[in-house]
């Protein structure tokens, strides 16, 4: 028996786990009390780490046409399936769907970019367009980089306004904060307040100082009402930001149309309360506005996400302690640099003409691209760590479309609702045999810290690591099907080192380093050392050899991480900053290294062409007109919203008995007023119908949802044939995305609308 420490990979909170290991099995997990960020916090999902990784239904061998196969047979089948399609129809005939857990694996952080490059297809899709794409777009316009997302400084704020987020259950998102509930309670303990705006009285709302019901999809109107008030009552105060912001007058003009009286009825919040919120935000010593799923997965998702930060900026709360701030992750640097700014629409989807955003197309149009005949029709699909049949809108249609593909390959540990359509399933090793570093979430953490967890069990010789799987796929796509994955591993390391050399004669001397981790950002590639000058070649090669000799790590991902850490903001700069971060240092610190509270980062974080925060980008002004027009629309009688439960994680944790036991959670919550109106009582079966589809589900009558709103969680519907989810199948629930509509999207980001879906209900 021994103990090992590992970051929990299941949600964005990045808690430290203490694992008990007996021989070659993890037998128990609990919170790591010495962890610098989570201090022992753990939730039920982290606590079932062992059951999740040991699930007997996990695939331990590849499947080819439903039968277990060797890894060589499986890769041969991938090659035989993909090559003819690529040769006959070109790269766009092959689509890629990337699911959420790619943000929780090192293979996702390091190997997706080379894979996408090798693919060369316009048809790249991901869970980002059923999630946070509006935030990327609004931050792209405001700050010049879609990854520059400010997070609420939870530990120092005096007043937090939270819209469309339920961190008591979700543990937070786009704000990595282990023990989010504890941090919220601490706001109250130090005399501060937090207010929740949500069409449901969530657990988070019930702990809040105030909860305001809001009609789904109307947060943009509420926020414009606040902005209007800030200007009308002369409450704006940009403080030290004022030298760094353009476009304030334009926003003032746009907000003129959104007096609180104009929006109050549509939002369901009295005008006087809207004014009150504006006054409280302006008066608080520090304040933060934070919006999440309920502000993104709605028709005006990008405008809403933008207005969240407009309020933060107008009240002077961006980039100051207690407001919203930009984290500085250990693999990134804080170098000031003029940017090219942010734009979308560099290419368009074939069928519905949606513009590309951040290199991808809206997943709401994937079924169109598969079903519609023509040149460049999608005929084959790769999915990696995704279950779009349960997680994307009108999933009934996508399910049928996947059945019609010529070829599909999935990298996934489960045979589930999506991967059952795959000709080849490639199951990666579980988290016990993977190293872990949070490329995504350390850049969103409410306090700067560093942590790396090496694998807690030795590699399993019969199963390739997920980095190897993705590398082999990338090599197959680039026409080198027989190459060893080591070829790509070496190439990526060489590229990373060349970037270090190119960043200056010696990063040691200049103190400069590349802005992004190797392989992380497509935006920051392509710079090679100044090798055209023959004089420069020899020293360059010497320097490369010197750096290569210093890199440590037992695994290709560890070596790439070592380079990123050493050249990052806190790095040892390959010796020039002794005592700075290295991989070795993180391995020697199993409870993580605290790097202190968030620090101001403006202007160095900005990448706009003007070098300023561009408060009023033209696309947002354009959407404002559409938002204003929406005020005159007839209101739907009944709309559907989602919800999350602490013991689930999207679609893939319903196969663990400890996480699924207890009362049926997949119910339709209906307010008593609506239940009366539709002759439904608690426990009845209701038929729910939308434009996209229809389902039957058990009713739970509760005043925790507001009148006119019903709620159903997503990620359920495990009763389809052909899966291997024996526990989930016993309590399957229904798939809420049968009801969500692929025809309505947030136009600026391509994000799906998953909340505020018009529905009708009646006794089944
Ligand atoms: N109606 C509605 N729909 C929603 C949402 C909503 O709020 N309402 N939320 C949306 C959001 S926020 C998200 S992020 C999406 C999620 O959408 P998806 O990412 O498509 O779905 P998940 O259920 O997260 O599926 C994750 C898959 O990854 C696999 N997996 C787990 N660990 C690993 C690993 O280490 N490697 C690999 N290769 N695979 C792994 C699991 O078996 C599972 O198949 O759903 C969205 N859908
Ligand atoms: N336990 C658990 N934890 C998770 C996940 C999970 O499935 N289960 N998923 C993970 C993922 S991928 C993500 S992205 C995060 C999401 O993290 P959160 O954003 O905190 O997720 P939700 O719990 O869905 O909270 C969204 C809230 O928005 C409300 N809402 C719906 N429509 C509107 C609206 O129009 N306006 C307002 N103001 N509110 C609205 C809903 O009622 C709901 O309470 O959670 C992560 N953590
Ligand atoms: S809150 Fe998230 S990171 Fe922490 S233990 Fe739970 S699932 Fe893991
Ligand atoms: Mo998500």
TrEMBL record:
Protein name: Molybdopterin oxidoreductase family protein
4Fe-4S Mo/W bis-MGD-type domain mapped to chain residues: 1-57
Xref: InterPro entries: Asp_de-COase-like_dom_sf, MoPterin_dinucl-bd_dom, Mopterin_OxRdtase, Mopterin_OxRdtase_4Fe-4S_dom, Prok_molybdopt-oxidoreductase
Highest taxon, organism lineage: Bacteria
Disordered: annotated span: 504-542
Iron-sulfur recorded as keyword: yes
Organism: Actinoplanes sandaracinus
Keywords: 4Fe-4S, Iron, Iron-sulfur, Metal-binding, Oxidoreductase
Positions with biased composition (Low complexity): 504-519
CDD domains: MopB_CT_1 (cd02782)
């Amino acid at each position: 028996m021994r103990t090992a420490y590992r970051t929990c990979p299941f949600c964005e909170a990045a808690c430290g786990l203490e694992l008990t290991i007996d021989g070659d099995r993890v037998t128990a997990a609990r919170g790591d009390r010495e962890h610098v960020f989570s201090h022992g916090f753990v939730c039920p999902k982290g606590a079932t780490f062992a059951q999740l990784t040991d699930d007997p239904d996990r695939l331990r061998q590849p499947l080819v046409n439903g039968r277990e196969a060797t890894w060589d047979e499986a890769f041969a089948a991938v090659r035989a399936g993909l090559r003819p399609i690529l040769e006959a129809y070109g790269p766009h005939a092959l689509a890629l769907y990337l699911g959420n857990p790619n943000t929780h694996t090192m293979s996702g952080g390091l190997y997706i970019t080379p894979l996408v490059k090798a693919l060369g297809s316009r048809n790249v899709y991901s869970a980002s367009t059923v999630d946070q794409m509006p935030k990327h777009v609004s931050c792209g316009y405001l700050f010049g980089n879609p990854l520059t997302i400010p997070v609420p400084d939870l530990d120092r704020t005096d007043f937090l306004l939270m819209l469309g987020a339920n961190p008591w259950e979700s543990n937070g998102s786009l704000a990595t904060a282990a023990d989010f509930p504890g941090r919220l309670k601490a706001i109250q303990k130090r005399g501060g307040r937090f207010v929740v705006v949500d069409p449901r009285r969530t657990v988070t709302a019930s702990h809040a100082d105030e909860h305001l019901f809001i009609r789904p999809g109307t947060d943009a109107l509420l926020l414009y009402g606040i902005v209007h008030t800030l200007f009308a009552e002369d409450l704006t105060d940009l403080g030290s930001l004022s030298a760094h912001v353009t476009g304030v007058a334009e926003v003032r003009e746009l907000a003129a149309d959104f007096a609180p009286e104009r929006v109050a009825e549509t939002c369901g919040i009295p005008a006087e309360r809207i004014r009150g919120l504006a006054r409280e935000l302006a008066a608080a010593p520090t304040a933060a506005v934070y919006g999440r799923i309920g502000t993104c997965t709605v028709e005006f998702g990008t405008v809403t996400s933008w207005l969240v930060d407009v309020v933060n900026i107008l009240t002077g709360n961006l980039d100051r302690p207690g407001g919203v701030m930009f984290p500085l992750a250990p693999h990134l640097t804080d170098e000031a640099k003029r940017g090219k700014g942010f734009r979308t629409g560099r290419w368009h989807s074939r069928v519905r003409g949606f513009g590309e955003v951040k290199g991808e197309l809206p997943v709401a149009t994937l079924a169109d691209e598969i079903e519609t005949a023509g040149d460049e029709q999608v005929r084959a699909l790769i999915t990696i760590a995704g279950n779009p049949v349960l997680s994307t809108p009108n999933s009934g249609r996508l399910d049928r479309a996947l059945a019609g593909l010529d070829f599909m390959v999935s990298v996934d540990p489960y045979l589930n609702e999506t991967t059952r359509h795959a000709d080849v399933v490639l199951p990666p090793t579980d988290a016990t045999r993977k190293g872990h570093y949070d490329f995504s979430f350390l850049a969103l953490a409410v306090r700067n810290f560093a942590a790396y967890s090496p694998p807690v069990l030795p590699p399993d010789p019969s199963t390739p690591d997920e980095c190897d799987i993705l590398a082999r796929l990338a090599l197959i796509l680039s026409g080198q099907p027989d190459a060893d994955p080591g070829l790509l591993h070496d190439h990526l390391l060489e590229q990373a080192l060349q970037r270090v050399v190119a960043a200056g004669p010696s990063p040691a001397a200049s103190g400069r380093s590349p802005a992004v981790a190797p392989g992380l950002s497509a935006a920051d590639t392509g710079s090679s050392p100044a090798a055209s000058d023959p004089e420069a070649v020899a020293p360059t090669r010497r320097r490369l050899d010197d750096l290569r000799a210093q890199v440590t790590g037992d695994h290709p991902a560890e070596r790439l991480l070592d380079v990123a850490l050493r050249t990052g903001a806190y790095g040892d700069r390959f010796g020039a900053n002794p005592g700075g971060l290295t991989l070795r240092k993180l391995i020697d610190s199993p409870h993580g290294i605290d790097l202190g509270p968030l620090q101001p980062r403006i202007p160095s974080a900005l990448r706009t062409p003007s070098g300023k925060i561009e408060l009023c980008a033209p696309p947002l002004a354009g959407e404002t007109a559409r938002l204003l027009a929406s005020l005159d629309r007839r209101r739907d009688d009944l709309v559907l919203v989602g919800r999350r439960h602490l013991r689930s994680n999207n679609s893939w944790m319903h196969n663990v008995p400890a996480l699924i036991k207890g009362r049926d959670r997949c119910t339709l919550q209906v307010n008593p007023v609506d239940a009366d109106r539709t002759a439904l009582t608690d426990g009845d079966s209701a038929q729910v119908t939308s434009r996209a589809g229809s389902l039957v589900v058990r009713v739970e009558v509760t005043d925790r949802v507001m009148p006119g709103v019903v709620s159903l969680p997503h990620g359920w519907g495990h009763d389809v044939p052909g899966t291997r989810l024996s526990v989930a199948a016993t309590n399957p629930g229904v798939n809420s995305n049968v009801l969500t509509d692929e025809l309505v999207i947030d136009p600026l980001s391509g994000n799906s609308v998953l909340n505020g879906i018009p529905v009708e209900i009646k006794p089944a």
